[in-house]
Amino acid sequence: MEEKKNIFTLSALNQSLERFIRDNFALKSYWVIAEITKAQEKNGHHYLELADSKDGKRVAEMSANMWFSTFNRVNNQLNGELPTIFKHGNKVLVNVRIEFHSIYGLKLNILDVDPTITYGELERKKKETIERLKKEGLYNLQQELKLPAIIKKVALIGSVNTSGYRDFLTELMENRIFTNFKVKEFSVSVQGDRATKQVVNAIHEAQEYNVDVIVIVRGGGSKMDLNVFNAYEIAKSIAESRIPVITGIGHETDDVVADLVANKYEITPTAVAKFLYVRAGVFRNELQSAFDSILKMAQQLIASNKDEFTHTSKYLVHYTQNIIRENNNLIKDCVHQLHIGVTELIESEKSKLDLSLSRVGNNAKNIIALKKSTELNARLDMVHMLSMNNIERNKIGLNNLAELLMLLNPEELLKKGYTISTINNIDVINYEGELDGAELKTLSSEYLITSKITEVKKHE
Amino acid sequence: MTAKLDPKLKYDEALEQLQEIVHLLERKEINIDDLAGKVKQAKLLVEFCREKLDSTEEEINKIINPNDGEEKPF
Amino acid sequence: MTAKLDPKLKYDEALEQLQEIVHLLERKEINIDDLAGKVKQAKLLVEFCREKLDSTEEEINKIINPNDGEEKPF
Amino acid sequence: MTAKLDPKLKYDEALEQLQEIVHLLERKEINIDDLAGKVKQAKLLVEFCREKLDSTEEEINKIINPNDGEEKPF
Amino acid sequence: MTAKLDPKLKYDEALEQLQEIVHLLERKEINIDDLAGKVKQAKLLVEFCREKLDSTEEEINKIINPNDGEEKPF
Amino acid sequence: MTAKLDPKLKYDEALEQLQEIVHLLERKEINIDDLAGKVKQAKLLVEFCREKLDSTEEEINKIINPNDGEEKPF
Amino acid sequence: MTAKLDPKLKYDEALEQLQEIVHLLERKEINIDDLAGKVKQAKLLVEFCREKLDSTEEEINKIINPNDGEEKPF
Predict the structure, then answer these.
(1) Contact map slice: B 5-44 vs A, CB within 8 A
(2) Residue E39 domain flag
């Protein structure tokens, strides 16, 4: 390096640079994204150190400032969020003009701030924090703690002079439901750089007191104001608290990480106070109503048992009387049937007797009638008939004899002039003796003539 | 000879006498002297027997039908 | 012959006697002279029996219907 | 024949005797001379049985209605 | 036959015996000679059962209404 | 049968025994001879249970109004 | 059964026990024999909780030896 040296004074160089910068950049501005590595405020002016990092290594640095009047204007436009945006670690999108000062060197003068990058970054960080908490097993730790049924002793973490803090205490102690609380206060700053550390310390300290619950309150504030409760450190100490933590951080939209890891959160400090006394009231009501229903049901149980007894007793009497009555009827029936049976038996025997007697009588009369009609009459008729036959027979015999007599009677012959002659009473015709000289008797109708046979001639 | 018959004469005896007379007549063993008497007696006997039969019949009818002629059959 | 019957005579004996008479008549072993008497006897026997039957009937009626004529049937 | 019945006679025996008489009469195996006697005996048996029935009935009524006239049937 | 009932007799047995007698009567399977006896026995059984029922009822009433007149039914 | 109840008897057991008896009575599965005994036992069981209910009720009332007459404490 | 409650009993447990009793009663899974006892126990539990609620709580103190192995009182 053997060259002729052209030597200037530093001021000459700086003046040249200042002129060059002013000539080239004075009318230009640039939107720059960078991370705030340091932020300071002095006399209303804000001084920032901006940087860029890549893979954990810093690759660019530059100082920047924002003058009082510009800050106020922009801060008004951003609803006062600007101080919280100008915080160490925040990423910012700023409109800058490059300036060079011969003493202070190269600087960026901030003309405007676009908060969206910062907000997005906040959300990103919040998500990161949540992820980290989850990864480390902290996120749900508080949920494993059970809130006591009665919460009476409260560790209160908050900023004493804020309205949220006062609202909480007033609501807690002046409600009509339950006020028998004791509060141990832990005063902390809830904004600014010290807030995180103070809140963490307060949580840690509260662990050593006999409280039922830790309540963290913060009145309403801007997104950037409340960002402190997105801090990993606070979330970690809440998660790790052995005492249940309830948060009451006033916000309208997004939850902060502290809410998410706490055992319970309400959207305002007042709501936390209300939760606490309502819980006591509810508990008391539950006790009362449980006890009331126990008593009521016990009495009902007894009453229904008594009713059942009354019924059972009635049935007992009823059924018993039924059995007795039924048996009485049964006996009555038996007696009745007995009566009927005896009467019927005797009646049937009597009619059997009557029948027998009338059969005896009828049969006897039949026998008599039979005898009268057949035996006697028949025999008498027989006698009659046989007698008549006898007589008839005799009459016929007699008539025959009479007729024979008539035939044999010689008197009729004699009347006709014939005579009968006999010799020794023998008809002359039959006489075989000596006729001659015999005495002949001759009978005529008129006479009996006796004569002597004198002559006998043979008749030819 | 042919006096009236003995009223005590029995029907059988009368009938026998009658038959005797008839036999005598049949055999002509009759005495002419007695003939008329015998015939007469025979006639008497016939009448006797007839009467006897008639009276017996009547008597029996009376016995059997004591109220004959009346309506009652017995 | 046909004297009054022995009142001690039994119905069956009387009936037998009657039968005997019937048999006599049937066998014609009876005289005309005895005929009416026998018939009378038969008649007597029949009457005797009939009376016996009548009295028995009456007796039976009295036994069975002791208060005959009254309303009570038995 | 129809002497008074043995008072020790049982109803069933009496009834049997009665039935026996009924059968005798139905088969007409009886003399007229015995008929009235049998009927009388039957009548006696019937009366005996009837009395027995009456006395049994009375006895039963006494048993069943000891205080006749009261309302209770037993 | 109708000796006093066994005092150890159970109600059910007595009722059964009673019904047996009733059935005998219904089927007329009972002698007239035995009838009065059976009825007497039935009467005894009825009285026995009735007394048993009455005493049971009384006993039960005493148990159920020890102080009769009070309202409590049991 | 109706010996005094076991003082160690539980209410539910007593109730069960009682209902068993009621069902027996309802189904008429009980002898007249056993009836009074069962009713007596039922009565004992009823009294036992009723006393148990009364004493339990009283006890509960004491719990509800420990100083009866004072105002309800809550 | 209704011995004094464990002073270390937590409200939650007390309420839980109380509700357990409510459920027993609701489901009628309770004997009459146990009823008074359970009601008594409920009463004790309620009183226990009530006292806890209404008692003037001691000041909130620093726990002397928070990690001394003793149990944290609440």
Answers:
(1) 11, 15, 18-19, 21-22, 25-26, 28-33, 35-36, 39, 42-43
(2) yes
Phi-psi region of G18 (alpha: psi -120 to 50; beta: other; left: phi over 0): alpha
ipTM above 0.85, yes or no: no
Cα distances from D57 to residues A340, E33, F41, in angstroms, run 12, 11, 46
Residues of B in contact with A448 (CB under 8 A): 32-33
Domain count, chain C: 1
Give C36's contacts in chain B (Cβ within 8 Å).
Answer: 56, 59-60, 63
List, in sequence order, every residue forming a beta bridge with D68; answer none if it has no partner.
Answer: D70
Dihedral over Cα of A346, A351, A355, A358: its sign: positive
Q: Taking a C-beta distance cutoff of 8 angstroms, is the pair A34, A62 a contact?
A: yes
Check if the beta carbon of residue B23 is closer than 8 Å to that of residue A416.
no
Q: Is residue E25 one of the residues assigned to a domain?
A: no
C64 to A383: CB separation less than 8 angstroms, yes or no: no
The answer for residues whose C-beta is within 8 angstroms of residue E70's C-beta and 6 or more apart is none
Inside any domain, residue C55: yes
Nearest CA in chain A to E25: A341
Measured CA to CA, the distance from residue G71 to residue A245 in angstroms comes to 20
DSSP state string for chain D: --PPPPTT--HHHHHHHHHHHHHHHHTT---HHHHHHHHHHHHHHHHHHHHHHHHHHHHHHHHH-TTBTBS---
Listed in sequence order, the residues at least 6 apart from A315 whose beta carbon sits closer than 8 Å to its beta carbon are F22, F25, F26
Please give the residue that has the higher pLDDT: either G24 or C65.
G24
Distance CA(A67)–CA(A113), nearest Å, equals 13
Give A313-363 pLDDT, tens digit per residue: 888 888 988 999 999 999 988 888 888 888 888 888 889 888 888 888 888
Domain boundaries, position G53:
34-64
Please name every residue paired with A62 in a beta bridge, in sequence order, or none if there are none.
Answer: A50
Chain-chain contact of F31 with E12 (C-beta, under 8 angstroms):
yes
Neighbours of A58 (CB within 10 A): 11
Can you give the pTM of this predicted structure? 0.61
Closest-CA residue to A96 (of A66, A51, A71, A59): A66
Range name among A152-161, A185-194, A392-401 with the lowest pLDDT average: A185-194
Interface residues from chain C to D (CB-CB < 8 Å):
10-12, 49, 52-53, 56, 59-60, 63-64
Tokens of A8: 């200037």
In a domain, C28, yes or no: no
Q: Is A425 left (phi over 0), alpha (psi -120 to 50) or beta?
A: left
Q: Chain F contacts of A312, Cβ < 8 Å?
A: 18-19, 22, 46
